[in-house]
Amino acid sequence: MALLQTNGLTAFYRDFQALFGVDLWLDAGETVAIVGANGAGKSTLMRSVSGVLRNKPEQIVFDGRPIGALAAPEVMALGIAMVPEGRKLFPSLTVEENLLIGRYGRSTNGPWSLETIYQLFPVLKERRNNPGTALSGGQQQMVSIGRALMSNPHVLLCDELSLGLAPVIIKDIYAAFPAIRESGASIVIVEQDIGQAMKVADRLYCMMEGRVTLSGRPMELKREAIHAAYFGADS
Amino acid sequence: MNWVDTVLQGILLGGLYALFAAGLSLVFGIMRLVNLAHGDLIVLAAYLIFVLVGTLGLNPFVAMAIAMPIMFAIGWLLQTYVFNRTLGPDILPPLLVTFGLSVVLQNGLLQAYSADSRRIPSGYLETASVRLGSLHVGVMPLLTFASALAVIVILNRLLYATELGRAFRATSDDAVTAGLMGIRPQRTFAIATGIAMAVVAIAALYLGTRSNFDPTIGPARLIYAFESVIMGGLGSLWGTLAGGIVLGVAQTIGGAVNPEWQILAGHIAFVLVLLFRPRGLFPRAVD
Ligand SMILES: Nc1ncnc2c1ncn2[C@@H]1O[C@H](COP(=O)(O)OP(=O)(O)OP(=O)(O)O)[C@@H](O)[C@H]1O
Ligand SMILES: [Mg+2]
């Protein structure tokens, strides 16, 4: 049985429907990438899983438990942590406080602590007492990833890590992922950048207009098929 | 008239206003909620202490220590069952609901305790004073000021050196993202209002021992608290103390010139401060 699974997931913003029956799964230890153009529904999917948006209970199952209707703090306590789109650091908190708050709702022992996060991203240690928002975009992204890891999650959800960052910085950030996988976390990565997604993922899902249009292992997927699934058949 | 004495009295009075304001400042800083019943809750706590002293014969400071957890519980319940339901993008519902609560409290107290003015007896402390050089300073005003300092030091430590304080600040920054960290914003708000009401119990002790009170004086205390918070700059507790001191000094100087000008002088100081420093004396860098 998959660690995390969605079953015909639908999601709404008031009466606007953003997801139309999304089925996907994540196995323990796996890294899955979700790609899609602007407005495909990737962030809506992340918000649904993390509990920011409420859904029908059975539409999201984690470790055999229906979690679709749980609120974000309850989902987090089960061990699903999110790196939200746009990083979302707390401006009133220093870098170190931003990291510390990541384990507010979940006290578990595991590989991740302030020390190991600072080993993963040494630059954060130098800037630990700066306000989180005084950092460069790439460093802020490191804080946001570190903050999510502080809870030692079973599942790490990452929404568009590369947003607004230069390619060389994106490379730095993805360089941390082998260590994160090693630590035992299963990972969902949302990206617009297909190339980056293919490199890190065991499996790939393509989304368009609130539906999954393609899925499979990166090696097995044809370029044209991905292109069609990403932009629509006639583009 | 002795100007040094007048200014000193004003500074010490500022401590009382800072105590009125600290809870208001905390709650506003964390959840952007302006509690229009804040003054009436101070009066409610004053009656609570008055009753504890009167019926059980307690020392007023002991009565305050008992009133603090009771007020904490009242704050927690109010936030959980009333205020949390009003919070949202629209700022009108919390104003209407807390205004309604203000009216209810005033009339409830009027029913229960009549319009007679009361005072919490504090024995020899009422008139006790100490010599500072050539000045005589009341022990009660000194205790008030010392309590204000202690409250602000403790609240600042709570905000900046504890896990709960981090949760307060994070929730204030972004409640949705705070939820992703495992913070339950509504519970956090309930604790914050509880703490604000515990501080209100301290303010109530000094309000009720230093002067007479009756069920109608809440709104004026709210205004003093509000002016202190705004003059000090939103979100800064030391600023709130500074704002309280400006208000207290302006009132005592005004009152020394002409007793009828006391209240007016405070309001004029408020307008002048805002004229020259629209964001207050110590505005917080991030808003
Ligand atoms: N808060 C909201 N209220 C109303 N509609 C929304 C809201 N957020 C997103 N939408 C709509 O839902 C759809 C899916 O948006 P979503 O943010 O999930 O896309 P996305 O795939 O993450 O896009 P991007 O790559 O730009 O981040 C879009 O049509 C969007 O306009
Ligand atoms: Mg998105």
Number of helices of chain B: 11
The small molecules bound here are: adenosine-5'-triphosphate, magnesium ion
Question: Which descriptor suits the 3D outline of chain B?
Answer: globular
The number of domains of chain A: 1
Strand content of chain B: under 5%
N→C terminal distance of chain A:
37 Å
Taking strands numbered 1, 2, ... along the chain, how are they ordered across the largest sheet of chain B?
1-2
Description:
The complex is a heterodimer of chains A (235) and B (287). In chain A, the strands form two sheets. Chain A has a six-stranded mixed sheet, with helices on both faces. Chain A contains ten helices and ten strands. The longest helix of chain A is centred in the middle third of the chain and has 13 residues, at 137-149. The termini of chain A are far apart. The mean pLDDT of chain A is 92. With 235 residues, chain A is α/β, with parallel strands linked by helices. In chain A, a hairpin with a 2-residue loop joins strand 1 and strand 2. By secondary structure, chain B is an all-alpha fold. Chain B has a two-stranded antiparallel sheet with strand order 1-2. In chain B, a hairpin with a 2-residue loop joins strand 1 and strand 2 (135-138). At the A-B interface, helix 2 and helix 3 of A face helix 6 and helix 7 of B. The site of adenosine-5'-triphosphate (ATP) has 14 residues of chain A, from strand 2 and helix 1.
